[in-house]
Amino acid sequence: CIFTGTHVMEGSGRMLVTAVGVNSQTGIIFTLLGAGGEEEEKKDKKAKQQDGAAAMEMQPLKSAEGGEGDDKDKKKSNMHKKEKSVLQGKLTKLAVQIGKAGLVMSAITVIILVLYFAIDTFVVNKKQWLPECTPVYVQYFVKFFIIGVTVLVVAVPEGLPLAVTISLAYSVK
Question: Which residue ranges have biased composition labelled Basic and acidic residues (predicted)?
């Protein structure tokens, strides 16, 4: 098996090319990563342009009902562009799951901090909620909310799919 960029140091041999471009092993990997889709789209556009000239001659005049076929073709082409590779789909699903777990953990963190503060202040130390102390207590609650938001922001990996895709693309090279 010989890949692009393989060097033969000495000797002689014969080679049978079985696949090139997007059909080769490297092309398949790039297609799965979403990098090879651009080349396929260019080939599809060229083929559609060539076929489109012949098809234009055979199409009847458009009526109010006749425009539906064009809309379906546009929807299909948009659907094709929005397709994700298997890797991108799994990474997106993983990022969503991590985001949900981060949301749950941040909510639990805020609840625990508020309960700990309330129990420690009002039950253990037996302080009463005085009107003049309300601004101080509100500051504590805002601080707990900020800690919860910080946990949420740190837990959501927005760049995870991009980082993994780039690292895999470089490792393929």
Answer: 40-49
